[in-house]
Design a protein that fits this description.
The protein has 225 residues and is of the alpha+beta class. It contains 9 helices and 4 strands. Strands 1-2-3-4 form a 4-stranded antiparallel sheet, covered by helices on one side.
Length: 225
Amino acid sequence: MSATVESRCPGCLEARVSEVPVRRSVRADDGESVEFIDHLSRCAACGEQFYTREQAIVSSRARAGVLRHHSGLLSPHDIMAIRSKYGLTQAELERVLGTGPKTVVRWESGSVCQSRAADNLLRLVDQDEANLRRLADRSGLRLPMREFSGGDWRNEESLRSLFVYLSSVPRIQRGSLNEEPNLLSPREMGSLRKKFGAVSGKASGRSAHAGLPAFIEVLERGGVQ
C-alpha cells in the first residue's frame, strides 16, 4: 500500500509521487543477513524512485536499529543515559572514547549503529567510573569531581567514587593544590577526612578503603613529592 507524498519527481517534475514500502536486507558483523522495511518515494509517471530528506533519515535509523538489535548492542537511550549519568557532553564522550566528531550525536539519534568495540567501552564506562577516568586521562580530558550533595560519606559507593577521583590524579606537587582550581585544597581534604570519621591513617584492615584515610592525610600536609 502506498501513500501520496507532497513532493515532485526530480526526474520528470511530476507531482504524482507516492511513498512505498520496500523490504531490504543488510549484512551484520557476524555475516548474517538481517531484514528491515524501508520507505521511499516512487513517481507514477516515470517510475523514478528516490528518498526525501525525511525518508533518508528514517531509513538510516531503521537500518541501524536492526543491526543494533541483532548484535545486542546498547540502544540510543542507553548511550544517552550513560553520558548523562556522568554529566558529559557529547563532545566529551567522543573524546573519551576516541571517536570522530558528531559520532555520539549519531549514536544517540539512532542514525548510526556503534561498533562492538565502542559498545564494549561504553559498557565498561557504565559499570565503573574508574574506567571512565582512566580513558579520560589517556585522552587528556580533565574530569571534575562529581557532587555528593546529601550523600552519606560513610556509604561504600560514595567512598569509592571519591577514591576514584583522588586516584585519578597521578601526581600532586607540593604547593600546587591552591593553584589548580580542579583539585581539593589541604583544608578541604581535612574537612573530608572529618566527614569520613577517619581520625588516623591507621585504618582498620577490614575496611574496603583502608588506605584512603592515610592517603588523605598525606594530601592534607600539602601533597606528595
